[in-house]
Amino acid sequence: ELDMDSSLGKALEMSCCIQSMLARILAEFEITLEQDVLQPLNKLSEEELPVILKHKKNLQKLILDWNTIKSRLNQAAKNSSNSVSAVTTSGASSAAVKLENLKEEEEEVKRRVEQSKDEYMADLYHFSTKEDSYAKYFIKLLEIQAEYHQKSLEFLNSSLAELMSSHNQTDAPFPYDPAVPGVYGMPLETHLKAAGREIALPIEACVMMLLTTGMREEGLFRLAAGASVLKKLKYCLD
């Protein structure tokens, strides 16, 4: 079980608290984003834009129908003028009626095109009056993001400083500088100079331990310590 009073335990506990607070800041950011930006833009995409697109599609269809009827009307007028002298009176009358019907149909479709165009243009004009409001939503999005990142960064900086300060504190009975590397695997002079010591840390620790608990032990130096004991001592001092 991890000792929560140890350096690792304290670092882990503080890191968990920091991550929890960052998650809370993120949740607040997402709620604000949903209320101030996404909901208004969803209303735009689900209510207003579909109406505009529907009128645009209807106008395009009517224009296509109008062009088709105009082509039929032009062809009927051409055929009628070319065959006036070759048809009977009843045939000419039938062609004239057909031509007149096409003209009426063309006029009706033209009227519907103009009406649809007016509806579509009205939608565009209405949308243009709200362009500034919609643009502000994207500005608001960037402002919310900037506030979120700034708040997270400020919290991280203060928490990191507190975590590093707590980590650098030590309850070790011997002077220790966290910037100084371990005592093993480096020259004695380098260790003494870097740590500002006159006696190497392992020697001082062993002497103090002997003075405290080992002076009354018989045959203390007869047997060499086991490899596991030496390894434990080395890592403890390092």
TrEMBL record:
Report keywords, A-Z: Coiled coil, GTPase activation, Phosphoprotein
Q: Spell out the InterPro entries in the cross-references.
A: AH/BAR_dom_sf, BAR_dom, RHG17/44/SH3BP1-like, Rho_GTPase_activation_prot, RhoGAP_dom
Gene Ontology CC, one term: cytosol
The record's Gene3D superfamilies line, in alphabetical order, gives: Arfaptin homology (AH) domain/BAR domain, Rho GTPase activation protein
Record PROSITE patterns: BAR, RHOGAP
> Per the database record, which ranges form the Rho-GAP domain?
186-238
**Taking every annotated instance into account, which residue ranges of this chain make up the domain BAR?**
1-172
A GO molecular-function descriptor? GTPase activator activity
Does this entry carry the keyword Phosphoprotein?
yes
GO terms, biological process: regulation of actin cytoskeleton organization; regulation of Rac protein signal transduction; signal transduction
Using the record for this protein, list the coiled-coil segments as residue ranges, or answer none. Answer: 92-123
Q: What is this protein called?
A: BAR domain-containing protein
- The scientific name of the source species is Micrurus spixii
